[in-house]
Structures are given as structure tokens and as C-alpha cells.
């Protein structure tokens, strides 16, 4: 594997004239302005950023032939005056649909050193549609843009814009994101390996159609033990209460805490925990009817949780999506959100319009509720529609949403590019086991040498991209740059808890933890184990083994 050279810094040359300087097909620069150094607030967090030029524009403006709606790939690029010579494509999450601020905050919760602060030129886009609703799935091209083509369309344009701004193209290019942004990054590693030198994928939904369909299946499981809510439909949040999830989480800690060599209210060895923790035997069972005080779990609730964690199967017994691990992070509020709130309010629309062919009609979807759609979804007859094609939807959802041959990253490896992936072990929507299995397949495909160019870091306790009882604040962008450009492989990544004094405090940290607890995140399959001596609040007292 070749060693790529380090990027060389440069100074912004062209500023507000960029609208005239960039000549690119079907691209319109709508504004270009110089932004003074100072605070930039994103999601309530103010970050001090350097002076930079903010460029906004639109690509491939058109009218959809199916729904008559207006479409374009909206974007913004932030170009620092003092540039480090690198391009960062900030892949955004969810359904996209918004051009979110191109700060480059791409790894860990409430990051302390986002890409723009590190000197990157940062691109953000809406992935080809102007609202974070699923109805763009009616448009065949908007589907493809969301899946992969927006990244392929934006990347060469952004590099040309950077060349116009600095007098040279970026020396090194990176793409990073979490959730659907992690999926974008993994797709880029497969489809656009020639365009990116470094790929950072967090909690990646690289099998997103299967995961979304599984969300609807989860709703069906929880509905069996839910009490009626509005319109006499099941109130999913009553299936397992926060106190009951906390009971499960505490029991997992009690059984698995010491597996990593120290009792510290944290479970580092998640794989070993699955063989140690037994939901049926270890969590107290309720004997009295109606007991919901968090001291026990009724047998029927245990049965549903066991099915949910094992993952869905069809009538033939075939697994339809990978199950997940029991982890103390099941007590996190974000975990419950993905299990109860997201299926009817997010996943139903995504499956109806994006991940099945043909998509639903707006009239049919609006004639019911998201929950009813979820409860009516058939894993036998509807699930296969993610692999179907119908005119004019000539590419299946599975094809346009997932990375082709995800375990074959030879083109990425052969040019010296590198890839870092992280995943919270208590992710409530995308299975960390699915990602670990991908890493196993990658190792097998590359004769056990995948660690030379790709590494996975499981984050104990962390929910979907952040949150939960976890050391969930970390920067993987800087280590990725060091790996790509200096050849310094990141055996560990330092992660910190967000206790009192953090830029955004994590209210779900155990009271016994230090506010600034640190842990090493280890390259899978290694886990952080206590050295036998030293401060249990310090990463230096742990080694990856």
C-alpha cells in the first residue's frame, strides 16, 4: 500500500468573485461572502471558527417528472482563509433535505475540534431534495441522489471550487458522517474510492433499508405488550418503561462489569457480555399482575425484548437483519426513541417512499397513520419490495442505498487511502453487530490484512452517534489524517465522558463516574482492559487487548 503525501497549506486567494470564477455544468452559485472569525452556533453549541468564505449554490435544478416538484442539489462550502490543504465532505444524516452548516462536526458527541476549526474546506449538502420529508422518494432521480449520486455529483464540483479559491486543488480529500452520513461515507468508500483519501463512518446505516424495515417489525413486537393510546392505537412507549430499561441496563452492568478487569460501572467487553448476561435468568421476573415499578420485568416483556434483540426472521426462519447486543446503554433515552418514537414517525415514511418499489402515494400514506403503516407492514410480502424495480424506478432501493461489494475495498486500499468506522454498542437503530460482521468479512476478503487500511472502533454504552452511559466525545478526524498522511495507524482513540464542564453535558452518565472519565477506544476486535493498577477514571490505566 502506497504512503500518501501530506497536504500543504495555502491561503484563500479568490473570495466573493468565486461566483464568477467557477464554471461547472448545471451549477449556480447563489452567494459568496466572507465570514469574520468568531462564534458559529450549530444545534445550540457555539464554536469559535476562523475567517472563511461561505459559498452557497445549487446543482442540477429540475422539475420532477412524477410529482412535478422542484429539485436540486443544494450545497454550501466553507473555505477558511488559512487553509490546511484538505477537503472534507460533511455527509449529513437522517433523510437529508437540509443544507446544514458546513462546520465539519463529524465524530463524537459535541466535538471540540470540527473540520473547519482544523482548517479544512468543508462541503455540506441536502443530497438532492429540499425538505427532510420522505416524499422525494416519488422522484426516481431524487432517490438515486439520496442514495449515492449526490456525492458523486458534488465531489468534483467542490474540488474545482476549491481550486478556484486557492489556486490549487485539495491535496487530500476526506468524507465523514454519522448515521445516514456514515452510510454516505461507506458508499463513497466503495463507489468513489478514487475521490477520497480518508473515510470516516460513524454508526453507519449501510444496510439502511433492512434496518428501517426492522424498525417497523419492532413496532409490531412492542405493540403486543403496549396499552392503547390515542385513537385506541398501541402506545409503544408503554411496552417497556424507562425504569424497566434501567433495570435491564443495571443488570447487564452487574453481570458484565468485571469482564474487562475492573468494576467501574462500564462494560468494555461487549462480546463476552453476550455469553454472560441472560435476560431470562438474570433480570428478576414479575410474579404479580401489573407490577411496573422497575424492580422486575414481566415474562411477556422479556419475551418481546428477546425477539427484538435477536432480530427479525421471515416465515422460513431466515434472518432479515442482524440482531444486536445487550449493553448498559439500553437505558439511554436515545435508545428508547429509536425503538418507540422513530418507527411510526420516521421509518414508516422512509420505507413507504424510499425503500420499497413502487413507492406509496401521498394520498394513501396520509390516509392512515405512521403507526398503522408500521403495524400493517409485512415482512413476507412488503420487505422484498426493497429489492424490486418497477417503471420508472429502475434501480432497487437495496442497490442505490447500500455500498456495492462492501467487503471488497481493494481500490481504496491500493491507492493508500484509509478508513475509520465507529459504532455505539447501544445503537437503537443500526446494529453494531452488523458493522462488526462487516469488519470480519473485510478481514477475510483481504487475507487478514484489512487493519492496514480499515479499522472499526466500538464505543461501549453509546447510543446512536452519541448519548447513553458512554465516553462519547472523541475526534477521529485528526487521527484519520495522521494515518492517511503520516502512516501513523490509530491503534486507539481517546474518548472522554461529557460530565460537568463539558461543552454539552451528558445527563445520562452514572453518578459514580468522574466528570472527565477517559477511555481508549480500541480497534476491533480488541477491547479496553484494566492494567491492574492505576486510576480507573483514566484511559492510561487501560490497554487494548
Structural description of this entry:
By secondary structure, the chain is an alpha/beta fold. The protein contains 16 helices and 19 strands. The strands form 6 sheets. It has a 9-stranded mixed β-sheet with strand order 2-5-6-9-8-10-11-14-15, with helices on both faces. A hairpin with a 5-residue loop joins strand 12 and strand 13 (234-235).
Overall domain count: 2
For this structure, the CATH topology of the largest domain is: Rossmann fold
Low-confidence stretches: none
Q: Output mean pLDDT.
A: 96
Q: Would you kindly provide a brief summary of this structure?
A:
The chain is of the alpha/beta class.
Provide keyphrases for this structure.
alpha/beta; two-stranded antiparallel ribbon; 19% strand; 545 residues; globular; Rossmann fold
Spell out the blueprint of helices and strands:
Elements: E1 10-11, H1 18-21, E2 27-35, E3 38-42, E4 45-49, E5 52-63, E6 70-80, E7 82-83, E8 86-90, H2 115-118, E9 121-125, H3 140-166, E10 172-178, H4 180-191, E11 198-202, H5 208-223, E12 227-228, E13 234-235, H6 242-256, H7 270-276, H8 279-282, H9 299-310, H10 333-353, H11 362-366, H12 370-376, H13 397-401, H14 410-414, E14 418-424, H15 432-445, E15 454-459, H16 477-486, E16 492-496, E17 518-522, E18 528-530, E19 542-544
Helix pairs in contact: 3-4, 5-10, 5-12, 10-12
Amino acid at each position: 500500500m502506497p504512503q500518501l503525501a501530506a497536504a500543504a497549506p495555502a491561503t484563500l486567494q479568490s473570495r466573493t468573485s468565486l461566483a464568477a470564477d467557477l464554471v461547472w455544468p448545471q451549477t449556480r452559485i447563489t452567494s459568496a461572502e466572507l465570514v469574520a472569525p468568531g462564534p458559529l452556533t450549530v444545534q445550540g453549541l457555539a464554536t469559535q471558527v476562523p475567517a472563511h468564505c461561505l459559498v452557497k449554490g445549487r446543482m442540477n435544478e429540475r422539475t420532477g417528472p412524477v410529482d412535478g416538484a422542484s429539485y436540486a442539489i443544494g450545497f454550501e462550502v466553507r473555505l477558511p482563509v488559512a487553509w490546511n490543504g484538505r477537503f472534507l465532505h460533511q455527509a449529513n444524516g437522517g433523510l437529508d433535505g437540509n443544507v446544514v452548516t458546513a462546520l465539519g462536526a463529524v465524530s463524537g458527541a459535541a466535538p471540540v475540534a470540527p473540520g473547519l476549526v482544523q482548517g479544512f474546506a468543508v462541503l455540506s449538502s441536502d443530497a438532492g431534495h429540499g425538505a427532510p420529508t420522505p416524499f422525494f422518494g416519488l422522484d426516481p432521480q431524487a432517490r438515486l441522489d439520496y442514495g449515492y449520486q449526490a456525492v458523486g455529483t458534488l465531489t468534483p464540483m467542490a474540488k474545482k471550487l476549491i481550486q478556484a479559491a486557492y489556486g490549487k486543488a485539495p491535496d487530500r480529500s476526506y468524507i465523514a458522517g454519522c448515521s445516514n452520513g456514515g452510510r454516505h461515507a461507506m458508499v463513497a468508500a466503495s463507489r468513489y474510492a478514487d475521490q477520497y483519501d480518508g473515510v470516516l463512518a460513524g454508526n453507519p446505516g449501510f444496510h439502511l433499508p433492512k434496518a428501517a424495515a426492522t424498525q417497523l417489525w419492532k413496532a409490531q413486537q412492542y405493540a403486543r405488550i403496549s396499552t392503547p393510546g390515542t385513537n385506541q392505537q398501541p402506545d409503544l412507549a408503554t411496552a417497556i418503561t424507562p425504569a424497566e430499561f434501567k433495570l435491564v441496563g443495571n443488570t447487564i452492568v452487574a453481570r458484565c462489569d468485571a469482564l474487562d478487569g475492573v468494576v467501574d460501572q462500564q462494560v468494555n467487553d461487549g462480546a463476552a457480555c453476550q455469553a454472560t448476561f441472560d435476560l431470562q435468568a438474570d433480570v428478576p421476573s414479575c410474579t404479580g399482575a401489573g407490577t411496573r415499578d422497575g424492580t422486575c420485568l414481566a415474562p411477556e416483556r422479556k419475551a418481546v425484548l428477546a425477539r427484538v434483540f435477536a432480530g427479525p426472521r421471515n416465515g422460513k426462519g431466515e434472518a432479515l437483519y442482524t440482531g444486536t447486543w445487550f449493553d448498559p446503554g439500553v437505558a439511554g433515552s436515545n435508545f428508547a426513541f429509536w425503538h418507540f418514537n422513530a418507527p411510526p414517525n420516521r421509518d414508516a415514511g422512509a420505507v413507504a417512499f424510499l425503500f420499497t418499489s413502487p413507492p406509496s402515494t401521498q394520498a394513501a400514506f396520509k390516509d392512515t397513520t405512521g403507526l398503522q403503516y408500521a403495524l400493517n407492514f409485512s415482512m413476507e410480502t412488503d420487505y422484498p419490495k426493497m429489492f424490486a424495480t418497477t417503471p420508472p424506478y429502475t434501480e432497487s432501493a437495496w442497490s442505490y442505498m447500500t455500498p456495492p461489494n462492501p467487503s471488497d475495498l481493494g481500490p481504496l486500499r491500493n491507492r493508500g487511502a484509509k478508513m475509520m468506522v465507529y459504532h455505539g454498542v447501544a445503537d437503537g437503530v443500526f446494529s453494531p453487530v452488523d458493522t462488526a460482521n462487516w469488519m470480519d468479512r473485510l478481514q477475510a476478503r483481504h487475507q487478514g490484512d484489512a487493519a492496514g487500511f480499515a479499522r472499526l472502533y466500538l464505543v461501549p454504552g453509546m447510543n446512536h452517534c452519541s448519548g447513553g452511559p458512554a465516553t462519547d466525545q472523541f475526534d477521529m478526524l485528526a487521527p484519520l489524517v495522521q494515518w492517511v498522511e503520516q502512516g501513523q495507524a490509530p491503534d486507539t482513540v481517546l474518548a472522554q465522558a461529557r460530565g460537568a464542564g463539558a461543552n454539552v453535558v451528558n445527563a445520562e452518565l452514572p453518578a459514580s463516574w468522574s466528570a472527565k472519565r477517559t477511555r481508549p477506544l480500541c480497534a476491533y476486535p480488541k477491547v479496553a482492559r484494566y492494567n491492574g493498577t492505576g486510576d480507573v477514571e483514566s484511559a492510561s490505566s487501560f490497554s487494548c487487548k
